[in-house]
Amino acid sequence: MQLDPQGMAPDDLSHAGSVVDKAIEYMMDQKIAPISVASALLGGALGLLARTMDDRAIAGVLRNALMSVESGELREMREAMPDQPPGG
């Protein structure tokens, strides 16, 4: 996903990503369904965005995410992962 096409990511983005990755790993180890993990993370992310951004900015973030799906970027990521069944 093109999260940072111009190299302008905040310094703490990598750290935040690592924390989220660990949380996902923990939930998967707890046998929580991938759709439940993803839904909880998305809900939490939307809640955080709602507390820190206006609706127009949130819509822009969501449009960028949708463009990543429609352009095939996420499919490319999925296909690059070894032995990952569709949907989890």
Q: Helix fraction?
A: 55-70%
**Which term fits the overall shape?**
globular
| Proportion of beta-strand residues | under 5%
Rg from C-alpha positions? 14 Å
Q: How can the largest sheet be summarized? A: none
Topology order in helix (H) and strand (E) letters:
HHHH
Distance between the termini: 17 Å
Give me the secondary-structure category. Answer: mainly alpha
Residue stretches low in confidence (pLDDT < 50, at least 5 long) are none
Give the count of helical stretches. Answer: 4
**Quaternary structure classification:** single chain
Give the number of DSSP strands.
0
Query: Which whole number gives the mean pLDDT?
Result: 87
Could you explain the architecture of this structure?
The chain is globular. It contains four helices and no strands. It is an all-alpha fold and 88 residues long. The chain has a domain at 28-80. The model has no long low-confidence stretch (mean pLDDT 87).
Entry keywords:
68% helix, single chain, 4 helices, globular, transmembrane helix, membrane, 88 residues, transmembrane
List the helices and strands and how they pair.
Layout: H1 13-29, H2 34-52, H3 55-70, H4 73-80
Summarize the structure.
The relative contact order is 0.10. This protein has four helices and no strands. It is mostly helical and 88 residues long.
